[in-house]
Amino acid sequence: MGNPAETLCKLKAVIKQGGYVLIDEGYLPNGAKQSDVKCSHYEFLTENQWMDLFKETGLELIETVGDENNETAASGDSATGMEFIIARANELMAKYQAKKAMFEGYVRGQQNEYDDLENTLVCITWILRKI
């Protein structure tokens, strides 16, 4: 849907006045830089940048729901998830040997995303209302 500003504008355009939008996102905590993020296909904003975007697009922050200790991604779910991804990738590599590099790249990308969620990003859900 585009960059964060474009996405918010598109979402705002399709909801009624007083309607709600839920944004489930990760942001860079204070002191972190984009270069700290392993998953480089997406540019993460800081919390302050998100707050500025909400104001600029006419969306009011109603509630913030987050994992203050960022423990959700660090739970056993990420290890189990990676085990399933690796197992399935190995099955597909055995079946489609010519695509091995593609599957290996996918596994690396997924591991980078899990690492970012565990170590670099703050995971959050924002409830916004169109004003």
Describe the protein in words.
- Helix 3 packs antiparallel against helix 4.
- The chain has helices at 4-13, 47-56, 76-95, 100-119; strands at 20-27, 59-66, 122-130.
- The relative contact order is 0.25.
- The chain is elongated.
- The protein is of the alpha+beta class and 131 residues long.
- The protein has a single domain (4-130), classed as 3-Layer(aba) Sandwich (Rossmann fold), CATH 3.40.50.150.
- Strands 1-3-2 form a 3-stranded antiparallel sheet, covered by helices on one side.
CATH class: Alpha Beta
Radius of gyration (CA) equals 18 Å
Topology as a string of helices (H) and strands (E)? HEHEHHE
Which superfamily, in CATH terms, is the homologous superfamily? Vaccinia Virus protein VP39
Looking at CATH, which topology would you report?
Answer: Rossmann fold
How many discrete structural domains? 1
Shape: elongated
By helix and strand content, what is the structural category?
A: alpha+beta
CATH architectural category? 3-Layer(aba) Sandwich
Defining traits:
single chain; 131 residues; alpha+beta; Rossmann fold; 3 strands
Task: Write a concise synopsis of the structure shown.
The chain contains 4 helices and 3 strands.
List the helices and strands and how they pair.
Elements: H1 4-13, E1 20-27, H2 47-56, E2 59-66, H3 76-95, H4 100-119, E3 122-130
Antiparallel strand pairs: 1-3, 2-3
Helix pairs in contact: 3-4
